[in-house]
Specification:
Layout (H helix, E strand, L loop, with lengths): L12 E6 L9 H10 L6 E4 L11 H11 L4 E7 L5 H13 L4 E5 L16 H10 L4 E6 L10 H14 L3 E6 L3 H13 L6 E5 L5 H11 L5 H10 L3 H21 L4 E5 L4 H16 L1
Parallel strand pairs: 1-2, 1-8, 2-3, 3-4, 4-5, 5-6, 6-7, 7-8
Helix pairs in contact: 1-10, 4-5, 8-9, 9-10
Length: 288
């Protein structure tokens, strides 16, 4: 099933993101996570792609295939391009196709300072165009409510985002954010620019201080005073900051759904407990 079939039914699409375990952890750990997530009945589950230039790593495809065959949930396989040649991308596309994976989240990917980038793909829009010409895939893309860290400003980033849609992206998932006003401003600008595909809001529940410091460094998300005060108040109590982080994420989601958002994409960080707490708190909101 294609993710496109989920939208336009007067419902809020609710999905999860998981990631393959680190090389030092057994692959079975992710299947334990999925066992704990499956009865929450997300509309789809996305699987991130590992950093680096190893096209032989099939973990993303393996996990996506299991999500589809064992759990009966639509998988969305991430695919990055900056570290790959077109021949390597072809190999990955063939692998996905042979495993019945029809939905791809096409990304540029992070540049690895230890691996020289390949020359064929510099932008996600180039990968999207390439995929569009080489298979019957449903293509999703990323968007950034506060603008990509490499863009000069939000208006420039939306111009690049429109190129992704024109290249063939049919659905967008946003980077995490902690102030909904940034998302609403972005959404208004995107629609004014003629971007009319469904846009899901990406929500990450913060459950420890180290996590937020890492995420802000990577994506540059702004921290509103309400969020900062919460972190400062509870940072020395793991239980309290976890509960506060869950409550903050639920607050964000309720507000977003009230404003008619197309969907919510929950970055689970492979934490079934947090995903369950949030899912159970909002299930009636999502249904309504």
């Amino acid at each position: 099933m294609r993710i496109s079939s989920l939208f336009g039914k007067n419902k809020v699409v609710f999905s999860f993101e998981v990631f393959p375990p680190k090389k030092t952890s057994p692959i079975d750990t992710i299947y334990k996570t999925l066992d704990d997530l499956k009865d929450l009945k997300p509309d789809f589950i996305s699987v991130t792609y590992g950093a680096g230039g190893n096209a032989a790593d099939t973990s993303t495809c393996d996990i996506a295939s299991t999500i589809q065959s064992k759990y009966g949930i639509i998988p969305l396989a991430h695919l990055t391009c900056v570290n790959y040649t077109s021949k390597e991308i072809d190999q990955i596309l063939d692998l996905l196709k042979n495993n019945g994976i029809k939905n791809i989240l096409a990304l540029r990917g992070d540049r690895n300072p230890n691996i020289p980038p390949k020359k064929e793909f510099s932008y996600a829009s180039e990968l999207i165009h390439y995929i569009k010409e080489r298979g019957d895939f449903y293509i999703s893309a990323a968007c950034y409510p506060e603008g990509h860290v490499d863009a000069e400003n939000l208006d420039q980033d939306i111009m690049y985002l429109k190129k992704k849609v024109e290249a063939g992206a049919q659905h967008l998932i946003s980077q995490l954010f902690f102030d909904n006003s940034y998302f609403y401003n972005f959404l208004e600008k995107a629609r004014e620019a003629g971007i009319d595909v469904p846009i899901q809001a990406g929500i990450m529940p913060v459950i420890n201080k180290a996590q937020i410091e890492r995420m802000v460094t990577l994506c540059g998300a702004s921290l509103p005073p309400k969020f900062t005060k919460m972190m400062q108040r509870f940072e020395h109590s793991p239980e309290a900051i976890r509960e506060a982080g869950i409550a903050y994420a639920v607050d964000q989601i309720v507000d977003l759904v009230s404003h008619g958002v197309d969907g919510i994409h929950l970055y689970t960080m492979n934490n079934p407990y947090v995903a369950r707490r949030i899912s159970e708190s909002i299930k009636d909101i999502i249904k309504a």
